[in-house]
Write a structure and sequence with these properties.
heterodimer; A: 126 residues; Rossmann fold; 5 helices; 21% strand; B: mainly alpha; Amino acid/polyamine transporter I; two-stranded antiparallel ribbon
């Protein structure tokens, strides 16, 4: 069974790095660089996991997260959130919005991989 | 013939009798009995101290020498009493309402409580009064000597007798004049004694007169014939002298300290003046009735050269009527003693209140301020002053030798004391009269009086004959008896005319020229308008009514129930028969303290005084009230100011706080953005360097590509840091401008080539070269930086298929305007206001700029005295740069 991750990130270089890492782990990686239609893209792509940047053009990652948590079919979707702002307030906001895991840029590749593995394991165990 | 010893005995007996009368009257007054002590009759009789030994003996002498002229001395006071009683009433009212103790006190009080003025008047009064006292002593000695001549073997010794008389009078004055300190300064004992003496002297003179007319001349008819036959009966009236003397005696009647004492200070009831207005002239008429007959008969009977001043004594003696002579002697003695006693009392009050006490208070400042202490000091000062004044009179008598005619000394004193008149009358009726005016007038009058009358009267060595003949310093117009060359006038008339007219002129002029102090103005109003606002100074009664008034007032101030509680408690303390307390001093003091907590001490005092005191509120009270209110006003003004200052400060603090919060938020947001901008390239760098480190079997292409990404992101970091530093320097104003001259064209040339070097996207730049021939004096590198930014922005963001950037320049009145317009879709209206803010990026930043470029451009243009704005409606993105052709420091 193919595992699919949807990466919503506006920085092409970061998106490329994550795609490289996860592809090697056997993930099918789809990327999207704009916040405006991100919720629809997520709903349409039916991914096993979403990696979501906070600062996106059009719509912030926080709003996207809140929106998908309100959608019945996406409420349990594992979401790994990445932010370059790194303030504790952002972490709180994200946790309140229902984030699965929150990470600050710059991250180590191993951290991202571990997080993705953990989240997927949790989701499949349920 | 009665021996001198009998006379002395009778005299002593009479004195003892006077002591007894005074003592009894004092006791009765103290016990609150003896209403007749305060009757108009007593008041009228006490005024008779005007008739001194000078009038008793001297009037006959005067008549013998100058005919009817003596009448003037009686006409003056009569005119005052009859035609000026309303003026006297004002004087009495003022004196009572101001609690005046002497004429010096009155003037001082009127002219703003000036002690200088009081001291001047006191000196004048003592100078004028001392010879007068000496004159009385002399009259007693002379009259004694008449009897002594007849009986050389008696106990009488001229020198010692004067001493004993003076000492006795001093003792009397001290005993009854300074028994205690009455606030009202009334001495019932003394007044009653002098009333008795007034009766005695009138009786004695009438007795002598009756004896002369019916006993010697043989009835009225023959007497008139004798008068007609003598020179006295001939009316040679010197109009100048008559007017002067009438005026002088009228003035003296008001101004003499002793007259002021009985007329104003000892006055119990203003209403007594109404009786005195006819009774006193009647008394004077009776006193003068037999003057001419006695003089005529005396001149007829007695040998040539007999002293006419003593006819009252010598005529009965020559007829062998010793008892009548003795009665006459007692009359003269009465005249002299009553005058001396009252004079000494009045003068000592002035001396002790205005000279001794101020000095004592100055030297004892801070110590002995207990009221009991001061009281005894005041009494002691009075007693010593009386003794000193008597001593002065005694020594004056001894030194002057008693040679001058009695009448002339009296007139000199009259002229001296009448110098007070302008200041006194002016003070009562003219509000414009000032202290300076009073002082100047008094001084001028005083000097002229001394120079033209007192010193010439004293003769050598006081007034050398040369000065009298040739004037002071040999100046003819300064001759004492012919001032300013006006000669041939009677010396007395001359003095009165000059001194009083110059005094009055000086008083008026100085008053008009000087400006009165507030206290003086208020006092002036109190004096001049005394009938408008003083309560009639009658005693008050009906204490319950007062308590009710006090209650009503207290309720208004303290509120109903606290006031009732206070009065209830006080009533219970007093024994509680009534629900209202009696207004005892203790109660009033407590009430005043209670009220002063609410309205201030001065106001409380004035309010209670208004209700209880029966007297008007004094000017000091009013001033103190005004002071208190002023302080309160000032205080509340200060409070108001403080409170508005506080609210101002609070507002400023709030504003500052808001500003700080904004700044703090801006800083947080800026830091957050900087953090984001730094972390983003670092994320790529870290991720790809880990990939290159950890991944085996990367293809060469992959390795090259990832290394290139790391390199690009590292460059992006560097650019960001450069921009941040640049912006920080520009914003802090630490930038050093490097001014130089070049044409706009070459600046644009360099910018275009720099911006487009190595650009991957092509953009066509169109310029209007002729218009660019503008010479600039500014920081050309910074301006170039702005241009490069704008050109590369267009190059990066212009989304047209065939991107074109038009650069156009205009020279507009000392400024150059350069527009950068591309043919892309431009900046959406909502974002236009944001483009110059830090980290503002429109859409996806494909070129990886940090969003600081336009913020830096804006800062640079501000430094150069120009500006950069977004031009809407140009088709594509359009920026306008404008700046002065030549940089000016002031343009910053």
């Amino acid at each position: 069974m193919s595992r699919k991750v949807l990466l919503i990130e506006d920085e092409p270089n970061i998106a490329e790095a994550i795609r490289f890492l996860l592809t090697r782990e056997g993930w099918q990686v789809e990327t999207h660089g704009d916040g405006t239609d991100a919720v629809q893209v997520i709903a349409g792509a039916q991914p096993d996991l979403v990696i979501l940047d906070v600062m996106l053009p059009g719509k912030s990652g926080m709003d996207i997260l809140r929106d998908i948590r309100e959608m019945e079919e996406l409420a349990g979707l594992p979401v790994l959130m990445l932010t370059a702002r790194g303030q504790s307030r952002d972490r709180e906001m994200a946790e309140n919005a229902g984030v699965s895991r929150f990470m600050t840029k710059p991250f180590s590749n191993a951290e991202v991989l571990t997080a993705v593995r953990d989240l997927h394991a949790q989701a499949t165990r349920l | 013939m009665a021996t001198i010893n009998v006379l002395i005995l009778v005299c002593l007996g009479y004195v003892v009798f006077l002591f007894a009368v005074a003592f009894a009257a004092d006791r009765m007054a103290a016990a609150g009995r003896g209403k007749w002590l305060r009757s108009p009759l007593i008041y009228t009789l006490s005024l008779s101290i005007y008739c001194t030994a000078w009038t008793f003996y001297g009037a006959v002498g005067n008549a013998a020498r100058s005919g009817l002229e003596f009448v003037t001395i009686y006409l003056g006071p009569t005119l005052v009493m009859v035609s000026w009683w309303w003026g006297l009433r004002k004087l009495v009212r003022v004196g009572r309402s101001q609690r005046v103790t002497s004429i010096a006190d009155l003037l001082s009080s009127r002219y703003g409580k000036s002690n200088t003025l009081a001291v001047c008047v006191t000196i004048l009064a003592v100078l004028g009064g001392t010879p007068y006292i000496a004159l009385q002593l002399q009259s007693i000695t002379l009259s004694f000597s008449i009897f002594a001549e007849a009986d050389p073997s008696g106990l009488y010794r001229e020198g010692s007798s004067v001493f004993w008389v003076a000492a006795g009078l001093a003792v009397f004055a001290i005993l009854f004049g300074t028994r205690n300190l009455d606030v009202n300064e009334r001495h019932h004992g003394v007044v009653t004694a002098i009333a008795v003496e007034a009766v005695v002297k009138l009786f004695a003179l009438i007795a002598v007169g009756v004896f002369v007319v019916w006993g010697i001349a043989g009835g009225v008819g023959p007497m008139m014939e004798r008068i007609d036959a003598s020179e006295i009966g001939q009316w040679n009236v010197d109009a100048g002298r008559w007017t002067t003397f009438i005026f002088l005696s009228a003035a003296a009647f008001i101004c003499l300290p002793r007259m002021f004492q009985v007329l104003v200070v000892e006055n119990d009831d203003e209403g007594h003046l109404r009786t005195a207005a006819w009774a006193f002239p009647l008394y004077l008429l009776l006193m003068s009735l037999f003057v001419v007959p006695i003089a005529v008969v005396g001149l007829d009977l007695l040998p040539e050269g007999a002293n006419p001043d003593l006819f009252v004594l010598t005529v009965p003696l020559s007829q062998g009527n010793d008892w009548l002579a003795m009665l006459s002697f007692i009359g003269g003695f009465s005249s002299a003693t009553s005058m001396v006693i009252v004079s000494a009392m009045a003068l000592s009050t002035m001396v002790s209140n205005h000279v001794v006490m101020p000095i004592w208070l100055n030297t004892h400042e801070g110590t002995g301020s207990v009221s009991g202490d001061v009281r005894s000091v005041v009494l002691m000062a009075r007693r010593i002053s009386i003794a000193a004044i008597m001593a002065l009179g005694y020594f004056y008598y001894r030194l002057s030798g008693g040679g001058a005619a009695l009448a002339s000394i009296g007139l000199i004193a009259f002229a001296g004391i009448s110098q007070i008149l302008p200041a006194l009358v002016g003070g009562l009726f003219w509000r414009g009269a000032t202290r300076t005016g009073a002082l100047v007038g008094l001084t001028v009058g005083f000097i002229f009086w001394i120079y033209t009358l007192l010193l010439p009267g004293m003769g050598e060595p006081w007034m050398p004959e040369t000065v009298l003949q040739n004037g002071l310093f040999g100046l003819g117009w300064l001759r004492p008896h012919a001032l300013f060359g006006i000669e041939g006038i009677d010396p007395m008339v001359h003095t009165v005319m000059w001194s009083l007219s110059l005094n009055t002129i000086a008083f008026c002029v100085a008053s008009l020229l000087s400006f009165p102090s507030p206290l003086e103005r208020l006092q002036g109003a109190q004096f001049v308008n005394v009938f408008d606002h003083s309560v009639s100074p009658r005693g008050w009664s009906g204490s319950v009514a007062q308590s009710e008034d006090l209650m009503i007032m207290t309720q208004r101030i303290l509120g109903t129930s606290p006031a009732q509680d206070f009065f209830q408690t006080e009533a219970e303390k007093q024994g509680g028969r009534s629900h209202m307390p009696e207004p005892t001093p203790g109660f009033l003091n407590r009430l005043e303290r209670e009220l002063s907590g609410s309205v201030g001490t001065a106001t409380a005092h004035a309010m209670i005084g208004q209700i209880v005191g029966g007297s008007s509120v004094s000017v000091e009270d009013l001033l103190a009230v005004a002071d208190e209110s002023a302080q309160l006003l000032e205080y509340s003004g200060q409070l108001e100011e403080k409170s508005s200052e506080l609210s101002r400060t609070a507002r400023q603090l709030r504003e500052a706080n808001t500003k700080l919060t904004q700044i703090s938020e801006q800083k947080d947001s800026f830091l957050s953005q900087v953090s984001h901008e730094l972390r983003t390239p670092m994320t790529s760098i870290r991720a790809f360097s880990e990939i290159m480190r950890d991944t085996e079997g990367l293809t060469n292409e992959e390795q090259t590509r990832y290394a290139a990404i790391i390199h690009d992101e590292a460059l992006r970091l560097t650019r960001l840091l450069d921009d941040l530093l640049d912006l920080s320097v520009l914003e802090n104003g630490q930038v050093n401008l490097n001014l130089s001259d070049d044409s706009l064209r070459s600046v644009l040339d360099r910018a275009v080539s720099s911006a487009l070097a190595g650009a991957d996207r092509k953009i066509t730049v169109r310029r209007t070269f002729p218009a660019e021939r503008i010479l600039l004096h500014t920081d050309l590198d910074r301006l170039g930086q702005v241009f490069i930014n704008l050109i590369s922005n267009a190059q990066k963001y212009c989304d047209a298929e065939e991107p074109v950037l038009v650069i156009s320049a205009h020279d507009v009145g000392g400024r150059v305007i350069i527009d950068f317009t591309d043919n892309g879709s431009g900046i959406p209206p909502g974002a236009r206001s944001m483009v110059f803010e830090k980290f503002a990026r429109v859409g996806v930043d494909k070129a990886g700029g940090a969003g600081l470029g336009l913020a830096i451009c804006r800062e640079i243009m501000q430094r150069l005295g120009g500006e950069i704005t977004y031009l809407p409606g140009q088709g594509g993105a359009a920026f306008r740069v404008s700046l002065p052709l030549a940089f000016q420091q002031a343009a910053q």
